[in-house]
Specification:
The chain is α/β, with parallel strands linked by helices. It has 10 helices and 8 strands. The protein has helices at residues 18-27, 40-50, 76-79, 102-118, 136-150, 166-174, 184-187, 190-197, 228-239, 243-258, and strands at 2-7, 30-35, 56-60, 85-94, 123-128, 157-159, 178-181, 204-206. Strands 1-2-3-4-5-6-7-8 form an 8-stranded parallel sheet. Helix 9 packs across helix 10 (243-258). The longest helix has 17 residues, at 102-118. The radius of gyration is 17 Å and the shape is globular.
Length: 262
């Protein structure tokens, strides 16, 4: 069985029929799907869909793109009591587009880290450096992690959609975080694929980020949770492992991190 630890099929504008895709995911061997909130309103939609099927679970959070518009962010606290909410996110730092100023992104991320720590929840983290300096967002994030860790406040979670440098991978792993791999692994440049190949199996979870980043061989289509199998197949072939080994390890990791249990 497989777990899609990050998707947005609940969001407004998803172009496929969620009900049909739920059935397709089950038929493909997907046992759990984590619906990831990007702001307060979207987080509420994630919870609403999570209530419709035992396959679904939800996160609540504010994406760095939305940080400047997150005036209602404290409403997240009211959503944490829902039994289907298992994490905080998608949150983080994105200096590539900078839809929100860096200082605002950092403030909103800190709020969500505090929320995660106080409620003993993991995080779904989005970290992307700028066009001019791919290291900057990771550097700021690692400093933030180390600051919390120095106070014995441990940030748990996954850096989702990882497609960065070896140094960044080492920084993520050394801080005890998981690495989320998606369709990028199937079409990235050889250098990035080599870094992805270095992600330890015990630190890896799978995701689709649907509707984005559709994996090979389905490139050009709207992404959906059923395609998580293609990502697992690619990783299995890349590493000389069986598909079952990848499925078993990544499912165990997802369950360990997110505690998606009835």
């Amino acid at each position: 069985m497989f777990v899609d630890t990050h998707c947005h099929i609940h969001s407004v504008g998803y172009k496929l029929d969620p009900a049909q895709e739920t059935t397709a995911a089950k038929n493909a061997g997907v046992s759990k799907i984590l619906l990831v909130g990007e702001d307060v309103a979207d987080s509420k939609l994630a919870i609403a869909m999570a209530e419709t099927d035992e396959l679904f679970w939800a996160t609540v959070g504010v994406h760095p793109h939305e940080a400047e518009k997150a005036g209602d962010i404290k409403e997240l606290e009211d959503l944490l009591n829902h039994p289907k909410v298992v994490a905080i996110g998608e949150c983080g730092l994105d200096y590539w587009y900078q839809h929100s100023p860096r200082d605002v992104q950092q403030e909103v991320l800190r709020y969500q880290i505090d929320l995660a720590i106080s409620n003993q929840l993991p995080m779904s983290l989005h970290i992307r450096g700028s066009k001019d300096n791919p290291d900057d967002a990771f550097s700021d994030f690692f400093k933030m992690c180390d600051e919390y860790h120095s106070k014995q406040q441990i940030i748990r979670g996954v850096v989702h959609s990882f497609s960065s440098r070896q140094a960044h991978l080492e920084g993520v792993l050394s801080r005890g975080l998981y690495v989320g791999l998606n369709g990028i692994a199937t079409f990235a440049d050889p250098e990035t694929q080599e870094v992805i190949k270095n992600v330890p199996l015990e630190s890896m979870v799978l995701e689709t980020d649907a509707p984005y980043l559709t994996p090979v061989p389905e490139r050009g289509k709207v992404n959906a949770p059923k395609y998580v199998v293609h990502i697992a197949e690619f990783i299995a072939k890349q590493r000389g492992k069986s598909l079952q080994e990848i499925a078993d390890a990544t499912t165990a990791n997802a369950n360990q991190l997110f505690k998606m249990e009835v």
